[in-house]
Amino acid sequence: MTLLIFILILSVLVFVHELGHFVAAKKAGILVEEFGFGLPPKLWGKKIGETLYSINALPIGGFVRLYGEDGSGEMTNDQLPMTNSKGRAYFDAPIWRRLTVLFAGVTMNLLLAIVSFSVLYYVSGIPTKTGKIAIVAVAENSPARLAEIKEGDEVVAIDGQEIFSIEQFVKDTKEKAGKEIQLQIFREKDSQALIVSLVPRESPPEGEGPLGVAVSDVELKKYPWWQMPYLGMVEGFKESLAWGKMILGTLKSTLVSLVVKGQVPKDIAGPIGIFQITGLVAKEGFLAILQFLGILSVNLAIINVLPFPALDGGRLLFLGYEIIFRKKAPPKVEVLVNQIGMTLLLALMVLITVNDVFRLIKK
């Protein structure tokens, strides 16, 4: 089941990306020679109009083959009538049309992410500030666990001073580390008001605070049915932006690690790592899979727009050259640079995959 979900997620991600290129090329009047689902070898193909639609053996993503995208201007499909191809090569299209085609794939991935997150919030509820500090997790062997604080408890006050924000809660527990404090707790389940004494740790384990709790002042709330689609879309957009910022930050540290240190960061995952994560996510149900799809879609959009040969961002560099110098880069040079870029990308993928394998062996 994990393999099926893994293949489905990757297929949706890449297929949606290529669908963007396909639709934009059609709208721009560029001749689309083939639109394929999956990767070759070809299993089945049917020509509808001027485009060959194919289903291929490897069910991972898809591809779009544009007439003249390598700058040669030569037909790659003998069945296509030459009369329909005149002046419709990608390489000969105006710059703004080529820009539209290149950005369409990234745009579709961003839209997929927004839709995925929007559906997630529509179904589960809209994050809403409550004004309450709720305990959502308690670490083992922590001061909070030893004091029998439970998930769902609400922190009302620390040493008699009311707490209204997470920032205040974190500040107070850090400042009073090593000293005994009294937490006023409300336990909604039993309708109990409790006073709990405990000592915040001065040097807590990594990832844990002085008390060993995770807190939240947000709950998932359902609004009237007619408001939910709009509110879900707003939250979906915010979530996409948040993941975009996080991925950019991670990407920066990854590049520094690769270029400066010559190391693959421990947290970066290749196909094997993503497959593992898919298995864990699948156990959590459909909404978790939907969130994972959204995260990967934002990730794919950002990676694709990087100014690296063989990616959409690499092609944008050549368009930038054309805009600045008012002439096209030699087609052979562009093809060669993209081939080198693809080789480097494949080498990086192999390196990351080897890293994944070693991580599995260690475990």
UniProtKB/TrEMBL annotation:
InterPro entries per record: PDZ, PDZ_6, PDZ_sf, Pept_M50_Zn, Peptidase_M50
Keyword Hydrolase recorded: yes
Subcellular location: Membrane
Domain PDZ: 113-189
UniProt-listed SUPFAM superfamilies: PDZ domain-like
Gene Ontology biological process terms in this record: proteolysis
Membrane topology: Multi-pass membrane protein
CDD domains, per the entry: S2P-M50_PDZ_RseP-like
Family of the protein in this entry: Belongs to the peptidase M50B family.
Protein name as annotated: PDZ domain-containing protein
